[in-house]
Design a protein that fits this description.
Blueprint: H1 15-20, E1 25-28, E2 39-42, H2 65-73, H3 81-103, H4 106-127, H5 130-158, H6 170-184, E3 189-190, E4 196-197, H7 200-215, H8 239-245, H9 251-259, H10 274-279, H11 281-298, H12 303-306, E5 308-314, E6 325-331, H13 333-346, H14 350-353, H15 367-377, E7 385-388, E8 408-411, H16 415-432, E9 442-445, H17 453-460, E10 463-464, E11 470-471, E12 474-475, H18 487-497, H19 507-520, H20 531-538, H21 540-546, E13 547-550, H22 570-573, H23 577-581, E14 593-594, E15 597-598, H24 606-610, E16 622-625, H25 634-641, H26 661-671, H27 701-707, H28 709-722, H29 731-741, H30 747-764
Parallel strand pairs: 9-10
Antiparallel strand pairs: 1-2, 3-4, 5-6, 7-8, 7-9, 11-12, 13-16, 14-15
Helix pairs in contact: 2-3, 3-11, 4-5, 5-6, 9-13, 26-30, 27-28
Length: 765
């Protein structure tokens, strides 16, 4: 019986600890004579190195941003267009650094602005004078600007792309930034020999040595003679197509490329993001166009623009070795824009050169389609040797017609066949420079080649793998997938949904997260038969309900098997019909139609004859969708599957172009009277009376909306300011009136609905 060894000693920290000690770490020492391993905590060393320049997008919201750019851009720099723009960007770094210092800590600015706003509102509440009202307005504007600057900065650093609308979720951004900062730090690393490095200089040198050996070398590739391939090519680039690739760039083409870059994407070595170029385009646009045009004219790129920032991304949750990190390139925005221009030009001719099935991303296809296709093509009866390169990305680097059709090779277990495979891979590496990663390639041997097993492994130098092979996280198998096969993917989804970062989301933010994750969760059953055809065949009874037959001359419809009668196929409703009438199952419908009249045999069922549909002998038979237009629509299909139910009267109050998710959520809870008031508390509370008016009346939905004097005062202010009229103090009666009064898409009605939601939200908040 094998023993299971697992270290149980852990050290857990909370978010407050990470805020106070962001560089802390711990190591687990050897247990010695104890059954527990001692944990050694380190507070971390402070990094006093000068941080590289990074352009923060919030700088574009400062009032003197364009003025600062204009001052630098007026300088005359001697040199090429690319050198001029690089030098001016370097001068701007000093300006932006000083602006950052003058702006200060954005989070502290928000706290101070909120404190000043609270004090100003307290003064106005006490004295009710115009000077304090103006002070409140001024403080509110300052607070709004401070919050917007902070949110812009947090969104850029957190890089949570799925939060696009709704709440600010600043807590989520803070937690995400702290988690990312801790995850990106490398406290220790193991060498290939097993030595543990904890000194930061040793860790840096280990990374440099590893990737210098991996990426820094050069090789002399043999040129491929393409003459023998010309006969196989279906299309070659014509002179007209070639001229389109090298045509001079236009200003609109350059601007479109820059504005197509995500403003929150990671910057390159120069530190500038696309937000800088978008906002300052009226000033820098002409210089940028000249720099890009200079590259297309000369074919030369300045080394400052061609520089690349290598960033290491962990490939596993707990990286230990240098090989557990993968490098990605962060390029300058100018470099990205030039690449986008080249790509968009090549998009015009690539579909003619590369087969549609070889596209890395087929339009309209999702991951589930690839999984189903792989399940259909997989064969379990593999004899001999199976060589897998599923984890090696090199095979997909080039669009090759003959080689990239599959990602695996099968052969017999003879050494001569194995040698053919290795010679092919060696020849491919000589021509392309793309070598096989032996550490990530596997060989799978069948049970019939156990005698040659060790000899084959030594010859290839690959690791031995086992079935089933995983593709997109799903094992390739000929049998039906079980929940155990999909458990790793399910666990990943559950972990993302239950992440501690998401616990700081508001109701609307959690709703948006669930919708996003739900769109990527899919379930299916794969069997030996075609999954797609089985699903289509199961839909036939449902589709029959939505199809209607319009009878013309009757020559295209079958008398007994088609659904031209409202009772369905006559072979089911009148099974003895062919025998009684003498009309076989293959009889067309036109056999019982003569001169636009039904001519049925005398022994036909009377109920069938009484419900015959009308005919039109001048028209052809048609099969139409059961809708008013006769055409298929998504709405009619949904109503067929799920009949529509009557809407509640307050449905329109939650709709409109100005709706805010968190406001709508609280309004929906208030309409259903599900808020945690004193008559319906979620948790027991010792408080008595309404907290807004300070009275002894219980805080119920009817009292809060709008019998409370505080809420009535809010209504009177809204009526005086924007003519917001709410005539009833009874909550449900007012909802009935508002749902009729403010319905429709009119701008005023939509604004009043949004005002009601905001009022209810802030009264409850």
């Amino acid at each position: 019986m094998r023993s299971l060894w697992k270290r149980l000693d852990r050290m857990l920290v909370n978010t407050a600890w990470l805020d106070a000690w962001p560089n802390s770490s711990y190591i687990c020492a050897l247990p010695s004579t104890s059954d527990h391993s001692p944990l050694i905590l380190s507070g971390g060393n402070r990094n006093d190195e000068l941080a590289p320049f990074r352009f923060d997008n919030y700088l574009t919201h400062l009032p003197d941003f364009l003025h600062s750019v204009e001052d630098i851009w007026k300088h005359r720099i001697a040199g090429t267009a690319m050198y001029e723009i690089v030098h001016k960007l370097k001068l701007l770094k000093t300006v932006f650094r000083s602006q950052k210092m003058m702006t200060g800590n954005l989070t502290e600015n928000v706290t101070k602005a909120k404190s000043f706003l609270d004090k100003a509102q307290a003064l106005f509440t006490t004295y009710k004078e115009d000077i304090f009202l103006n002070l409140v307005k001024c403080c509110r504007r300052v607070f709004s600007v401070a919050v917007n600057l902070e949110i812009t900065m947090l969104k850029q650093r957190a890089k949570m792309r799925w939060i696009k609308h709704g709440d600010q979720n600043s807590k989520v951004f803070f937690r995400k930034i702290n988690a990312t900062r801790v995850k990106q730090r490398v406290f220790q690393i193991k060498t290939a020999g097993g030595n543990l490095l904890t000194d930061q200089q040793d860790v840096k040198q280990e990374f440099i040595s590893y990737f210098h050996h991996l990426l820094g070398g050069s090789s002399q590739n043999r040129r491929l003679n393409l003459e023998f391939l010309r006969a196989e090519l279906k299309h070659t680039v014509t002179t007209t197509e070639a001229s389109l690739l090298v045509a001079p760039v236009t200003q609109s083409e350059v601007k479109e490329a820059f504005f197509d870059i995500d403003i929150e994407s990671a910057p390159g070595p120069d530190g500038y993001t696309a937000a800088f170029y978008r906002t300052a385009w009226p000033v820098v646009g002409q210089a940028v166009f000249q720099a890009v045009g200079e590259f297309f004219r000369t074919g030369k790129l300045l080394k400052q623009i061609n520089a690349t920032l290598i960033v290491l991304i962990p490939k596993v949750n707990l990286p230990i070795y240098v090989s557990d990190y993968r490098p990605i390139s962060c390029c300058n925005v100018l470099y990205k824009a030039i690449t986008k221009i080249l790509v968009k030009r090549m998009q015009r001719i690539l579909p003619l050169l590369i087969d549609y099935s070889q596209n890395a991303f087929v339009p309209g296809r999702s991951i589930i389609d690839n999984v189903l296709l792989a399940q259909e093509l997989w064969l379990v009866t593999i004899k001999g040797v199976f060589l897998s390169a599923a984890h090696s990305k090199w095979i997909f680097k080039k669009p090759m017609t003959r080689l990239s059709g599959t990602f695996c090779w099968r052969s017999s277990a003879q050494l001569s066949s194995i040698k053919v495979l290795t010679d092919t891979l060696t020849e491919f590496a000589t021509l392309s420079g793309l070598k096989v990663n032996q550490a990530k390639s596997q060989i799978i041997l069948s049970s019939s080649v156990q005698q040659e097993r060790q000899q084959i492994l030594e010859f290839l130098g690959f690791q031995e793998g086992s079935l089933p092979i995983r593709y997109l996280g799903i094992p390739l198998t000929s049998s039906r997938l079980t929940i155990a096969d999909c458990r790793p993917l399910i666990d990943k989804v559950d972990a993302r949904l239950a992440a501690w970062i998401n616990q700081n989301l508001s109701y609307a933010g959690r709703l948006q997260l669930i919708k996003l994750r739900q769109s990527t969760i899919w379930t299916f059953n794969s069997a030996t038969g075609s999954w797609g055809w089985k699903k289509l065949l199961k839909l036939r009874p449902l589709l029959r309900r939505g199809v209607t037959y319009k009878i013309g001359d009757g020559s295209s419809f079958n008398l007994w098997q088609d659904i031209w009668h409202e009772q369905g196929p006559l072979c089911l409703t009148f099974p003895q019909g062919p025998r009684v009438t003498g009309l076989p199952l293959t009889t067309p419908l036109s056999s019982v139609l003569q001169h636009n009249q039904w001519c049925w045999p005398a022994l036909t069922d009377a109920e069938i004859v009484a419900q015959l549909p009308p005919t039109d002998p001048t028209a052809a038979d048609m099969i139409c969708w059961n809708s008013s237009s006769g055409k298929y629509t998504l709405k009619s299909a949904v109503s067929l599957i799920q009949p529509s139910t009557p809407r509640v009267f307050w449905f329109g109050l939650l709709q409109g172009k100005f709706k805010i998710p968190r406001h709508g959520f609280v309004l929906w809870m208030a309409i259903l009277e599900k808020l945690s008031t004193m008559d319906k508390p979620w948790v027991p509370s010792a408080e008595n009376g309404c907290v807004l008016c300070g009275g002894h009346i219980d805080e119920t939905h009817e009292h809060l909306f709008f019998k409370c004097w505080y809420s009535k005062r809010c209504l009177s202010i809204l009526k005086r300011k924007i003519r917001f009229h709410w005539p009833f103090s009874e909550w449900q009666r007012g909802l009935t009136w508002a749902s009729k009064k403010w319905r429709g898409n009119h701008l005023v009605n939509a604004a009043f609905r949004a005002t009601l939601a905001a009022l209810v939200y802030h009264l409850w908040d």
